[in-house]
Amino acid sequence: MGRGDLTNSQWARLQPLLPQGKKPGRPTTWPRRQLIDGIRWRTRTGAPWRDVPERYGPWDRIYDLFRRWQRDGIWARIVTQLQAQADAKGLITWDVNVDSTICRAHQHAAGAVKRGISRRNRPVVSPSSRLTTASDAPEAD
């Protein structure tokens, strides 16, 4: 067992959440635990799939299992179920903290002054400017 591999207690918690095989027949060559450890190794290290150590099985079989479960939504379901179990035991605190120093907007969204030929849509009218049309005159009571 490698340093980052699943412990027996972790595997006992994870195994009931995994999908069961639909087809009876030939037993699998590579146990699921070994393949999942390979997936975990790859996601933890960020290495290319071809660099997964051989002790976890062939890299293409590990990648195939990862992609099939990702496509079918199995990983999301497993995470949701594990979160629900931990929440039921009171192990998760659902506090939300937003630090505004990391919220950044593009400079165009911040109301910055535009440069170039773009000007304001309406000209600035000073209070001393003369009225030029009758419609500009205030209404008389």
From TrEMBL:
Pfam families, per database record: DUF4096
InterPro entries (UniProt xref): IS402-like_dom (IPR025161), Transposase_6_like (IPR052909)
Residue segments, region Disordered: 114-141
Domain Insertion element IS402-like: 6-78
Entry-linked NCBIfam families: transpos_IS5_3
Xref: PANTHER family: BLL5188 PROTEIN, TIS1421-TRANSPOSASE PROTEIN A
Protein name: Transposase
Upper lineage: Bacteria, Bacillati, Actinomycetota, Actinomycetes, Streptosporangiales
